[in-house]
């Protein structure tokens, strides 16, 4: 019994020592202020900074002025794939999927301008940044859908005028979705847009030529997506904003061989607003 008491006291002492010496890295929710060694292989680089739930300020804006939105970070949380219903009388619905991609799903360091029109409406125009990520999701049943999560060339505006950016401001707009595959990508049969074979059949008949025409004719097709950015938290002192988003965009077409499916993405975002430098 004496040894058990001594052992318990020793373990308690070791636990208190480790807690006191901990640098708090395990509890970190943002990579800000951490070293490379503290971030690498932890998944923290895929997490957007967030504001406190009690942050409810506002950033005043003036008509005719321009502002910069920098460090925009868009982090997906949920994925849905639109599937046709088995019953023809029912409409197609979105089915929740799970992401297969490793921790490389967040868009980050995006910047652009927010212009206040004469009518008071705000328009955000995306300019550059890490604005695309290849992602694959899988739905129940095992079917997988690759897509290029992106907000390239996004132009999003508010529906009504606003004298400030606050928790009631929503930006809605459309963006370009580039081809998931590049022109030099080769499919399993060696066919591509800029390289590889242009036909997968040695001596195709007229019937075969019509059947395989779409698969043989590779194209890097672009699509269009739409997104809604709903601001929920604003820090007027630092210019930081945060909120939630919902985006709908097409999936990969296998260089034009398949019909794209609609992918719905939901998640959170963060950014910093500052006056445009003269």
Task: Write a structural description.
The chain is mainly β and 278 residues long. It has a single domain, classed as Photosystem II, cytochrome c-550 precursor (Porin, Beta Barrel), CATH 2.40.160.30. It has four helices and 13 strands. The strands form two sheets. It has an eight-stranded antiparallel β-barrel with strand order 2-4-5-8-10-11-12-13. A hairpin with a 5-residue loop joins strand 6 and strand 7.
Give me the secondary-structure topology.
Layout: H1 2-21, H2 36-39, E1 59-60, E2 66-83, E3 93-99, E4 107-116, E5 122-130, E6 132-138, E7 144-150, E8 152-157, E9 164-165, E10 170-177, H3 206-211, H4 213-216, E11 223-235, E12 240-250, E13 262-275
User: What is the CATH level 1 assignment?
Assistant: Mainly Beta
Order the strands across the largest sheet as they lie in space.
2-4-5-8-10-11-12-13
Label the overall shape.
globular
Q: How many DSSP H or I helices?
A: 4
CATH topology (level 3) name: Porin
Oligomer: single chain
What gap, in angstroms, lies between the N and C termini? 77 Å
Helix residue percentage: 10-25%
Low-confidence stretches: 15-28
Class by SSE composition: mainly beta
User: What is the helix/strand order?
Assistant: HHEEEEEEEEEEHHEEE
């Amino acid at each position: 019994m004496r040894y058990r008491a001594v052992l318990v006291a020793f373990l308690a002492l070791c636990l208190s020592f480790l807690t006191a010496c901990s640098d708090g890295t395990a509890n970190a929710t943002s990579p800000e202020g951490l070293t490379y060694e503290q971030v690498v292989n932890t998944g923290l680089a895929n997490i957007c900074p967030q504001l406190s739930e009690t942050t409810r300020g506002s950033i005043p804006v003036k008509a005719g002025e321009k502002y910069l939105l920098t460090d925009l970070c868009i982090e997906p949380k949920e994925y849905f794939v639109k599937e046709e219903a088995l019953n023809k009388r029912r409409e197609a619905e979105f089915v929740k999927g799970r992401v297969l991609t490793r921790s490389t799903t967040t868009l980050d360091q995006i910047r652009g301008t927010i212009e206040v029109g004469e009518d008071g409406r705000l328009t955000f125009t995306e300019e550059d940044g890490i604005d695309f990520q290849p992602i694959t999701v899988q739905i129940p049943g095992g079917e997988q859908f690759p897509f290029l999560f992106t907000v390239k060339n996004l132009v999003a505006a508010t529906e009504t005028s606003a004298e400030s950016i606050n928790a009631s401001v929503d930006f809605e707009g459309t963006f370009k979705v580039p081809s998931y595959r590049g022109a030099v990508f080769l499919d399993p049969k060696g066919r591509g847009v800029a390289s590889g074979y242009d036909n997968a059949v040695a001596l195709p008949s007229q019937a075969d030529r019509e059947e395989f025409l779409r698969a043989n004719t590779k194209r890097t097709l672009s699509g269009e997506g739409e997104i809604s950015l709903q601001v929920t938290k604003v820090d007027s002192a630092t210019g930081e904003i945060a909120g939630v988003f919902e985006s709908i965009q097409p999936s990969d077409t296998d260089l034009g061989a398949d019909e794209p499916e609609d992918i719905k993405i939901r998640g959170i975002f963060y950014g910093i607003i500052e006056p445009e430098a003269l």
